Amino acid sequence: MTNSSFPAAPLDPNGKGLGAFPESCTSADVAALQWNLLREDVSLPVAVLYESRVRHNLQWMQRFMEAYQVKLAPHGKTTMSPALFKRQIDNGAWGITLATAPQVLAAYRHGIRKVLMANQLVGRANMAIIAQLLRDPAFTYFCIVDSPANAAQLGAYFGEQGLVLPVLIELGPAGGRTGVRDDTQLQAVAEEIGRWPGLALAGIEVYEGVLQEEGAIRAFLRRVTDALRGLAAAGRLRKNGPALISGAGSAWFDVVAEEFSQLDIGAPLEIVLRPGCYLSHDVGIYRTASERINAHNPVARKMEPGLQPALQVWAYVQSLPEAGRAIVALGKRDAAFDAGLPTPALRYRPGAQAPGAAPAHWKLTAMMDQHAFMQIGEGDDIQVGDMIAFDISHPCLTFDKWRQVLLVDEQYRITDVAGTFF
Amino acid sequence: MTNSSFPAAPLDPNGKGLGAFPESCTSADVAALQWNLLREDVSLPVAVLYESRVRHNLQWMQRFMEAYQVKLAPHGKTTMSPALFKRQIDNGAWGITLATAPQVLAAYRHGIRKVLMANQLVGRANMAIIAQLLRDPAFTYFCIVDSPANAAQLGAYFGEQGLVLPVLIELGPAGGRTGVRDDTQLQAVAEEIGRWPGLALAGIEVYEGVLQEEGAIRAFLRRVTDALRGLAAAGRLRKNGPALISGAGSAWFDVVAEEFSQLDIGAPLEIVLRPGCYLSHDVGIYRTASERINAHNPVARKMEPGLQPALQVWAYVQSLPEAGRAIVALGKRDAAFDAGLPTPALRYRPGAQAPGAAPAHWKLTAMMDQHAFMQIGEGDDIQVGDMIAFDISHPCLTFDKWRQVLLVDEQYRITDVAGTFF
């Protein structure tokens, strides 16, 4: 869990959700500033991660993966925060998963040296970014391919550069997102990859999360393991490194672990799972997912307590213009709104001893760019200037609203600032 | 239109949507890098503003406001880009409108010295940000108040600091967002403001955009002008500066100009309108709004052509996994999706002469964090690696996905990079 070798980043004086700080203050100096959220030392709205819950979640997921003897490459697109990547690596993660070439570059620039880019690499400038990084022999990288056309583009580009690009073939279900749909397409892509000395086929990648139902997911995953066995048996896989199979978003990692951990291809194999949202978890789509996991997966069932919601956005009540309505200074610029609106969790009146639970009948009914409409009851004890902590649904689209996220301890002291690079 | 006095900002090597550049390259060096969008010199997805259309839009809105002899304080929350604020000021804007204290600080740090914060100022750290800026006698600032409670908080804070905070009372329609609903509330706020030497009442502010219908908006605006006349007649307004009345989002600025430009309160008065989206315009909610404006407003009718959509997001086709479906490397992290999905406008195959119109039947059907699903026809001429330029709906929630937006000329050469501070 030590964060000590991670380079401290200067705080951005143009940023939101911070307190006052001297010029050239870095994240390493933040604890010494002694900001406290409850003492109104920082500008609201602010995004906060609770240190202890983050630590619990990091350890929970690592233990889960170890129980299945599979590797964890957390999807870094969730937080895009190298300071949080560092915590994931320090807790035992194999590497970091990312979605785009600029994300890979930002991670590399902050010390990440093993990346699974769970996406196609397309376009000359994006290939140039990756080529530059591949020249570092300490850097390990995989991307995915699902068409002969893309394989040929990559083969030509990386071959010309005198580089070898390790790739995984993506399989996808019919009606899904990316990925070859059938064995004919799979073989065509494998053959095209085989033609290019600039490419090395390392294995298979999937994203099962486009399917919604466990039976369909298990059937799909078995097709995937069959396909990898087939590629191995046909001698299609690279010889100078282990084979790799990768799947799992944040909703079905248990099922993927169960299916993939059974796999034996008669050769060295790394099984890499990629949940990303577990670090912060949420009270929406991922809480729903974890309820299923905790109920059905034999390993998760024994790991009480499960993942904890560790990310909240705090904001002020700014107006109480009419009965039953509070306007909160929290907008679509501050929290995800695509998978349920933020949920009032805590209330705090500056000067009081400690936050209390927000009344259960408080509810956001709409959000605008910079405002939220909160339904309240008549006669509720609420004032302009009260602070409300909101739980969120969909961490990915909450983190990307913040360039700097505060880490807080149990006393709401700010202990660190995690920069993001979206 | 000169941008010369604006301090050049270093390009962010962790950013997306850029090409390769040497260390310590600034926005002033970008043109010399000779990046061209069509030559694949920059990483896609990328957000681009078309220089000539931006220039047209800046001039169009300024001329519109001048025709009504009202001031323009563009809402800067749309772009949060000081380089674009500078262009708005250079074209004659009175100042910049902003929504939060950190936005005001970021603008101030980039040279903006006149700000209407069209929002309540709540919380100790936010007040501290503004107090620090008010100590600069060259800085002009107004915020809005709609409750005696907030007036008392502000009066106590700024009075203790020995500062005088100029405020506007906000009026809001019943069922709307912030703002006092009736005359009783208005008088209570005005009285509370009058009690505090740390506050100066400068006038009234409204946001009519929460109403959806012209008749209701005109009736509301007339109540607002009556209210300002009443405050002036009662001697409630500050003596050491002009009175101020402000309204207008990007959808109803014509109606606000028509109503407010009639106003005479028998004392110096500044009428300040705040559309923000006109700089980039769009092909969604604001095109719809401008169709009404161009059809009905006598000034706009004569200003052909009207506002032009100037912001596009370019992205690659990354997969063609099954008939009728293309997957595009463009996600909810790259463009607004809350008021209509992005619309394919142009297609370009690297190496070709010039982009052509995207087929009218190409249509996004869904977006995920990093991907878009595009419906295409069977047999369409489309390949992995093709570039597609998307028009967008809702610029505010597109700009906030980008830390750096490229300005391009008619030949798709990148002429400048505008940083944003969300």
UniProtKB/TrEMBL annotation, chains A, B:
Which Pfam families does the record cross-reference, listed alphabetically? Ala_racemase_N, D-ser_dehydrat
What SMART domains has UniProt attached to this entry?
Answer: D-ser_dehydrat
Organism of derivation: Achromobacter agilis
Please state the Enzyme Commission number of this protein: 4.1.2.42
Domain D-serine dehydratase-like intervals: 310-409
What protein does this entry describe? D-threonine aldolase
> What family does the Swiss-Prot or TrEMBL record give for this protein?
Belongs to the DSD1 family.
Keyword terms of this UniProt record: Lyase
Top class in the EC scheme: lyase
Q: Molecular function (GO) terms listed?
A: D-threonine aldolase activity
Matching entries from InterPro entries are given as: Ala_racemase_N, D-amino_acid_metab_enzyme, D-ser_dehydrat-like_dom, D-ser_dehydrat-like_sf, PLP-binding_barrel
